[in-house]
Amino acid sequence: MQMIRWGLRSLCRSRKAGLYGYSSKRFLRTASFGAPLNRNPAEIRSKVLDCRESYFWSSHGLHDIRYQIHQDRKSADEEPVDPFALVSDELSIIANRLRSMVVSEVPKLASAAEYFFKVGAEGKGFRPTVLLLMASALNMPRPESVAAEIASSFQKDMRTRQQCIAEITEMIHVASLLHDDVLDDADTRRGVGSLNFVMGNKLAVLAGDFLLSRACVALASLKNTEVVSLLATVVEHLVTGETMQMTAKAEQRQSMEYYLLKTYYKTASLISNSCKAIALLAGQTTEVAMLAYDYGRNLGLAFQLIDDVLDFTGTTASLGKGSLSDIRHGIITAPILFAMEEFPELHSIIDKGFDNSENVDAALEYLARSRGIERTRELAVEHANRAAEAIDALPESDDEDVLTSRRALVDLTHMVITRSK
Amino acid sequence: MQMIRWGLRSLCRSRKAGLYGYSSKRFLRTASFGAPLNRNPAEIRSKVLDCRESYFWSSHGLHDIRYQIHQDRKSADEEPVDPFALVSDELSIIANRLRSMVVSEVPKLASAAEYFFKVGAEGKGFRPTVLLLMASALNMPRPESVAAEIASSFQKDMRTRQQCIAEITEMIHVASLLHDDVLDDADTRRGVGSLNFVMGNKLAVLAGDFLLSRACVALASLKNTEVVSLLATVVEHLVTGETMQMTAKAEQRQSMEYYLLKTYYKTASLISNSCKAIALLAGQTTEVAMLAYDYGRNLGLAFQLIDDVLDFTGTTASLGKGSLSDIRHGIITAPILFAMEEFPELHSIIDKGFDNSENVDAALEYLARSRGIERTRELAVEHANRAAEAIDALPESDDEDVLTSRRALVDLTHMVITRSK
């Protein structure tokens, strides 16, 4: 599958001939702008360093590179695919199964737990879509040769098990939303009243716990302890990220490194590790599992970076048109952090806090004069490209379904960075 | 091991010759006082029916049976054992490991999570003591014959894995305490400020989630998916019990059946299922695992029933000397439920709620005139006996350590019902 990536065109093209398995390798080369060299691969794969390096790269290396979106997206022979349409039937199955999985003998608990799985409130199904496409994208011969007959029954069972990962991921995601909303005293979520607002904090805490325990029971039923451990670690990451955000000291709030690590924990860990779980359940090699992880990780980071931009711009490109909910809650995100490098005066504004709107306005003014939004988008594009490269690096396949799913996964990286809501 | 149980002496003695494996069988016979007969064994083992039947039994069958405590506890040749002293060395190992297991890279999260594992605040170690003694009590030949050499290495590994169950159980227990304290707006726990009081609700919710995820990671490391599933179900039970208590309707608050089911979920499920996990990790049969479960279940129920008595009496036998915290929070427990059978007038008092102390006083007056406290103790004694019978029903062993541990487990059932705090 030959594709030319959107964005960062000059860079991508000049390096196209040298595409390789791990996006971190490419990264190592480009990181030479600002990051220390001579790292060993294991060190580079560590998420912490990876975060730190991508920061260096974006802040020092991309200043003079113009990026453009919507160009050279695909070679002419590739049909456009709608990633969501490809798996819509399975999405319905998963949505129905989720509703039946959160039934409890205590009526209030059941209605609390199913609150976000109800028809109309169940979200876009972004995570399940990614996971189902990943399952199809990795549907290729496994390392061990398996007799045709066994393979066929395994195939069906495997798909059900992979669907189960999608369900578990949604349950963990919604559990974390329920607890986060309690923590943030949020009053709306997905356009409806947040559960804590409608049913009270106590029930929201319990419903979150209930979903976590159901997710854990479902995980155990997969009888793969590596996968159990992987997704338990995700729950720990979600908690760690939330606590990092909640307890950050002044210095940490103004650190890009801290921000990126928190973003990995809060957003990218769930999708990256569940992508990896899909690969493990498919019986794929460690290398393939790492590529699945890389895809999820970079897609998740790109997604959050754009989210942080949209919090300032909303559906337009104009600053201040977003909800500004982060900055009003005192949460400092990438656009402000980049702006701060150009305008150190922002430090003292951030120190004062954003309880009054004058300070918010002052910060927005500096942001408008800076390249903060642009550089955040650049960083998102870079992560989107890395995600797409992970897909390119998968073992070759001539299976039409596999190729279509891989194209859809790459298209998703595009949708993530071009979305306006 | 021949023992004559304390309490309910006439009943116990007359039936001693017919002791058998499952306490439910014994129960079936005694249940004929009030419960429907002709149940099949599977049905009888179901916890819901079991709770319901034990209610019928206690409310209809025990009226005329005098029980006495502290008599005929043991045959003369049995040395007294201190259950806690038997495992004190291992308890220290577990306490230390718990402290090292809850370390986090986020300082606030670490200090929140370790709050109840600190020296001086870590509790009496009741659950770990039960589990370690159970591990020793089941240290007998496994169904499969294992070569001597392998057996010896397995033995050591097995003990470490069983200790791990004790650690996981403590983490789940403390996580539920943290969330419960948030739900109850509690300001103290174990004599120190509750975590939500000291660090705020948000951090208490996160610390609970963190402990649950660490417990789940530790569970996965045991590589036994049946055990993962068992303890995940416990978390679900804890949530279900808490929600039942929180959302009970007027009718449910006055139902003994509802109360017993809630008590199983909130208190007995954790210890019973972790006892079962100990047996499973020891490679024991389903029958032995069920006896371990029966022991834990009945011990847990006896423990809670006495807790409910002590909430009214405190360290004395005088009513109103306890903290009265349940009734003041509107939580109706066994003593009041039994009293209500004698004095239906209590229904309307309960309906009015206990926000004013006059209503509390009125309820206490009825309780004092009733056999509520006595019948609650009788029920606790009955469950303690059933727990001891489960130990008696274990396959015979002539190993001195095994016998000592079994004696200690039986002694624990005694300590549970005779404790005054």
From TrEMBL, chains A, B:
The keyword Magnesium applies. InterPro entries: Isoprenoid_synthase_dom_sf (IPR008949), Polyprenyl_synt (IPR000092), Polyprenyl_synt_CS (IPR033749). Its cofactor is Mg(2+). It is found in: Mitochondrion. CDD domains: Trans_IPPS_HT. GO terms for biological process: isoprenoid biosynthetic process; ubiquinone biosynthetic process. GO terms for molecular function: metal ion binding; prenyltransferase activity. GO terms for cellular component: mitochondrion; transferase complex. Its main location: mitochondrion. Keywords: Isoprene biosynthesis, Magnesium, Metal-binding, Mitochondrion, Transferase. PROSITE patterns: POLYPRENYL_SYNTHASE_1, POLYPRENYL_SYNTHASE_2. PANTHER family: ALL TRANS-POLYPRENYL-DIPHOSPHATE SYNTHASE PDSS1, GERANYLGERANYL PYROPHOSPHATE SYNTHASE. Belongs to the FPP/GGPP synthase family. This is Solanesyl-diphosphate synthase 1, mitochondrial-like isoform X1. It comes from Canna indica.
